[in-house]
Amino acid sequence: MVDRWQTKRMMILFGVISGGLVSLAFVRPYEKEIALAELVLQLSGARGAFAMGCTLPDLVRFMLRMVPNMLVVMMLGSQLYRHFCTASVYVFSRYPNRLQWYLKSLASLFANVCFFELIFVTSTVLAAMPRYRILFSKSGVLLLGFHALIYTAWIFGWVLMTNLFAIRLGSSRSFMAMMTAQAVCTATLAFVRIFERNGMSAEFIKLFIEINPVAHTVLSWHQGAPFGEALAHSRYDLSPLATIMLLIILDIVIVLAGAAVAGRYDLLSENRETEED
């Protein structure tokens, strides 16, 4: 219980600090007022009302915006793993229902991710209010909810994968592998610019983007109901519904893989942490 409240306090503190810093660094209207929808788009790479491009400067700025998410993965990336270590010694020997234990631990992990994202987006908006006049609208509020939903699903997937790989590889190797994977996915978006310069078809470019999971976290690349004009300047017309479904399906696959690992893997037979030393 103490560890749970310590994690909650850590999520609150980090959510407030990171949300404030991201707001100060990246929320930049052209005048002294900003639409809420524009503010939200800037949290995922847009500059003003303009969609994020695939140039090197745009991708670098995008990666900087993703730093808080990566740090959350680092902070929560060993939560389930630590519980699994403890359970392997004290719980599983007399409590054989590993699936029930796994689901309880999973719920706690998901709650921490949701808690961070809620604090983060709230702090981002509040930090902008003393500096600029924020124009609230229904589409802006919906877009803020869409941002919170896809980033919650995004962070949760990476946090869970980091924990599961930690069971197999050790925590340090697992975190480095996950960060490398995210960096590679982001870097490959630079090929879009090359494809466009070489006259590749729009259908091929869109398909290339759709199969890259990082691309689905760029809100300014989406278009469709119910966001209306909030996504009128979309660059690649990704479907918001398809993005939500894709991230949910990926999370379900990771959850099922985790259930298999938790149910079959005996941590006591190997010590990955000491092997790293």
Commentary on this structure:
With 277 residues, the protein is mainly α. The protein has one domain (2-266). The chain has 12 helices and 2 strands. The longest helix is centred in the middle third of the chain and has 32 residues, at 138-169. The chain is globular and about 60 Å long.
List the helices and strands and how they pair.
Blueprint: H1 2-26, E1 33-35, H2 36-42, H3 56-65, H4 67-76, H5 79-90, H6 98-128, E2 133-135, H7 138-169, H8 171-187, H9 190-197, H10 202-210, H11 240-264, H12 272-276
Parallel strand pairs: 1-2
Helix pairs in contact: 1-6, 2-7, 4-7, 5-7, 6-7, 6-11, 7-8, 7-11
Number of strand segments: 2
Which radius of gyration do the C-alpha atoms yield?
20 Å
Going by helix content, strand content and strand pairing, the class is mainly alpha
C-alpha termini separation: 31 Å
What share of residues are in beta strands? under 5%
Q: Into how many domains do the coordinates divide? A: 1
Arithmetic mean of pLDDT:
83
